Amino acid sequence: MNRIISFGALLGKISPLQMLFVAFWEVIFFAVNEEIGLHLEIADVGGSMVVHVFGAYFGVAASYMLTTRAAMAPGSENGSSYRSDLFAMIGTVFLWLYWPSFNAAPAAEDLRHRTIVNTVLSISASAVTAFAASSYFSDTMRFDMVHIQNAVLAGGVAVGSIANMPIEPYAAILVGTLGAIISVTGYVVFLPKLQNWFGIHDTAGVQALHGLPGILSGIASAIVAWSASCYKFGGEEALAQHYSSFSTSSSDCSMIAQGTMQIIFLVITLAHAMLSGLIVGYCARLKWFAPSVEYFVDSENFEVPEIEDPYYFDNHGLEEAVATIVDEINVRKNRSYSSLFDVDEPKPAAKGKGKGSKGSKGSKGSKGSKGSKGSKGSKGKGSSKKGSSKKGSAKGKGKSAKGKGKGKGKGKGKK
Question: What pLDDT shows up at residue 250?
């Protein structure tokens, strides 16, 4: 999941080869950081520090190295539309519904119920607060869909490290409320200043959704550890179930050292993520990885329907296949269908000269074409090169160039 978070900061600015290179090395650095956390025996059931903080700041650091001035220039295609906001909101609803299960899945079986309850309380508080904060920061007192799509989920990130802890319901609600406020403030204040002052461009605002709420969760986990006691957690065995560093043989239930270790790991995660992101981003700038020339445009790497030719004119071999089929039809039916697949517009037919309601003047090579094609008893004056009599009356049967028809006509015409 941390790769998805990191790509949020890089979307629209790097090529597929660069994405592949960044993803490969991020997995390695992520595994190293996770191993450090296991060695320090930190408590992070929802992965707020291990996954969200690392993924966000790895992507931001890589973005700092890979983003050019042209990508940050005003008037770029980096923006949303009503349709994209609508579909993104559908994704937000699904994430909101399933976030409690995200946090509860790694927890011990008898702690999953508590994890789900704490996550629901926190993410519900962040949903309500996100609307209030978005309206507060808006000059017109309206909701901004970017804030709603992201800050609604901030409570799930903020409570991740302490979701399985025996905290009070008001604590979960407070953490979710603070997470939403920090998230909206990040979008409105923090991210624009980072871009203007330091040139750090974050396409999807992963700092506001994953980075800042993840840091809040790390701090909250330290506070919970500092205030932990055997009485509060329900005994020594229960305390050892939450903190693997605690030994049931110890007579001291104080977890001050555990809280300090939580802060130390948070700092290590931030430093490790940014340093590794800078290194990987610098290496991905090489020309071997074919950096993008156009930014925030799908047509750079994909065929988009708005500019794609019809399927029988594209360059994927279908034009040749259609030509083969047409040739086979011509051989079997002795009829020409090439005009159906001709790109050039057909030339208008030449107008014939005649008197009255005459058909087109018979062309060379046609046999007895007379008057209209296959008409019933039509009378007209026309001329043909075959079948006309000296007296001017003629009866003939002819075959036109595009079909077979029989017609009889009486008239006087000049040869």
Answer: 60
